Amino acid sequence: MEIVIVRDAAEAGRVAALKIASVVERKPDAVLGLATGSSPLGIYESLAARVEAGELDFSRASGFALDEYVGIPLDHPESYASVIRRDVVEPLGMDPARVRVPDGRADDIEVAAAEYDEAIAAAGGIDIQILGIGANGHIGFNEPTSSFASRTRIKTLAPQTRADNARFFDDPSQVPTHCMTQGLGTILDAHEVVLVAQGSAKASAVAGMVEGPLSAMCPGSALQLHQHATIVVDEEAAALLTLSDYYRYTYANKPVWQRFEH
Ligand code: GLP
């Protein structure tokens, strides 16, 4: 894992965006793993500004969303299909036909989930997976006790996750109870992963993910098994890391050939 500690939330978005930009510059038809939530918004804003300036082009890239609610209409403003279209596809100028979101309304959820994993594999796998982390350590919607080997499937949302996401809905009771999410095994198959976390509410989850034992109780800790995971955190989210001086030292002394900043 590479841990990058930055000043604030805005800087986290900017630095993580450099990582995604470098992949798309190298491979214009890259396959992106797309996360929702507030954490990656700074990434998308930073990338959109570079698209606007004519420096980056996502028109040939494709995308697979991490997850989707089960039980809300596709055109609901908070369905992840809507969120991905609004926050990612439109601002980045992606081709909507090349972006898929798990089908939370499928008649046969199990078949739809298996097909989703098959589609990712058929696309050559995800080149770079963008991630946030929940306060309880979830990534995607893989709640605590999710199997590290799990594939895309239906999950029940933890009460804390429903409460955390209530801010997006008019009424907390409207937050769906279920979702379809890429599994931890699906996420670990991505060629590269970049996770962003900002704010003190994420500090405990970040510490568990980076320095805690490998444990299904902290699904993010599965990323310790990934060969190429970059974790970009602001000072507040890094507050409970015991080796933060070492991470700063490592980043400050990165050899030029390893740097992803321009
Ligand atoms: C959401 C999403 C996750 C996200 C997490 C944190 O419910 N399913 O992909 O990383 O919870 O959300 P936020 O970034 O808004 O804190």
What molecules are bound to this protein? 2-amino-2-deoxy-6-O-phosphono-alpha-D-glucopyranose
The tally of structural domains comes to 1
Could you give the count of β-strands? 10
In the predicted model, the low-confidence regions spanning at least 5 consecutive residues are none
Beta-strand residue fraction: 15-25%
Strand order of the biggest β-sheet: 1-10-9-6-2-3-5
- Largest beta-sheet characterization: 7 strands, parallel
Average pLDDT metric? 96
* Through-space gap between termini: 21 Å
Q: What is the alpha-carbon Rg in Å?
A: 17 Å
CATH overall fold name = Rossmann fold
Question: In the CATH hierarchy, what is the class?
Answer: Alpha Beta
Helix tally equals: 8
**In one word, what is the shape?**
globular
Name of the CATH architecture: 3-Layer(aba) Sandwich
- What proportion of the residues is helical, as a percent range? 25-40%
Q: Order of helices and strands, N to C?
A: EHEHEEHEHEEHEHEHEH
Name the structural class: alpha/beta
Q: What would you say this structure looks like, in words?
A:
This protein has 262 residues and is α/β, with parallel strands linked by helices. It has a single domain, classed as 3-Layer(aba) Sandwich (Rossmann fold), CATH 3.40.50. Helix content is 33%, strand content 16%. It contains 8 helices and 10 strands. Strands 1-10-9-6-2-3-5 form a 7-stranded parallel sheet, sandwiched between helices. A 3-stranded antiparallel sheet has the order 4-8-7. Helix 7 links the parallel strand 9 and strand 10. Helix 1 packs across helix 2 and helix 2 runs parallel beside helix 3. The two termini are 21 Å apart. It binds 2-amino-2-deoxy-6-O-phosphono-alpha-D-glucopyranose (GLP). 2-amino-2-deoxy-6-O-phosphono-alpha-D-glucopyranose (GLP) binds next to helix 5.
